[in-house]
Design goal:
Structural class: mainly alpha
Oligomer: single chain
Mean pLDDT: 96
Low-confidence stretches: none
Order of helices and strands: HHHHHHHHHHH
Distance between the termini: 36 Å
Shape: globular
Number of strands: 0
Helix content: 55-70%
Largest sheet: none
Amino acid sequence: MFYDAEEKKKYLKANLSQKRYQHSLNVAAECRKLAEKYGEDPDKAYFAGLLHDVCKELSGSEQKELVLKSGFAVCREELETRSLWHAVAGAYFVKTFFGVEDIDIINSIRFHTVGRAGMTRLEEIVYLGDLVSADRSYKDVEKMRKLVHSDLNKAMLEAFAFSIKNVVKKSGMIPLCTVEGYNFYTRLMKE
């Protein structure tokens, strides 16, 4: 499949803030690097990373409308957490408005915030690429970047743990798919 990233960049540049657009470029670049390292299609990974936040700056009502229209399985915790809507909305948006049919790209956008058990390599790459992109500056980001480039499964487990800790600190709700993802990578590391 041909991934027209240049055309999508024009759309993103026109529809996202400069900061969000730059973040999208950074995530795309990180996804390309990770794809090259871990044997995924670099162009496909770049494309998915570029579009991961396509709906992030839509209004809450626009995001929720897309989530509800999507037909995707969305748990109650996701529906009650506005900051998670953009991922589901984005997956539906790229499928419906950009005509993306590749389920791996759609799912990598859909699950880039919450994760899940049994993620494909592309899903893992977009999940981690978003977490360690060049614009990220949280405590221990350098440690996470090293881990992402040395052990993908260990990085996924750390990323899930990091995500869950952050949600707990904010007294937020944890979607079941996130818990299942954490348990999946915990088992994988023990085996």
